[in-house]
Design the sequence.
């Protein structure tokens, strides 16, 4: 959900600046993103890596749901 919203937002901002949607302008818009979404804050560094990515690992055993968060 957040990835789609972030991409659509970047495409809209790229279009607002250039009047067209091109890969380079969308890339620039994504890199300047500071997006608040369902999964939290999403922002990127100068190299395009996500700042403070939230990664969770769950372990499922048998029929127990939800799984146990292990990281």
Sequence:
């Amino acid at each position: 959900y957040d990835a789609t919203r972030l991409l659509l937002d970047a495409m809209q901002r790229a279009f607002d600046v250039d009047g067209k949607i091109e890969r380079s302008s969308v890339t620039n818009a994504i890199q300047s993103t500071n997006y608040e979404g369902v999964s939290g804050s999403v922002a990127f560094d100068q190299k395009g890596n996500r700042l403070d990515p939230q990664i969770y690992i769950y372990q499922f055993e048998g029929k127990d749901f939800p799984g146990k968060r292990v990281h």
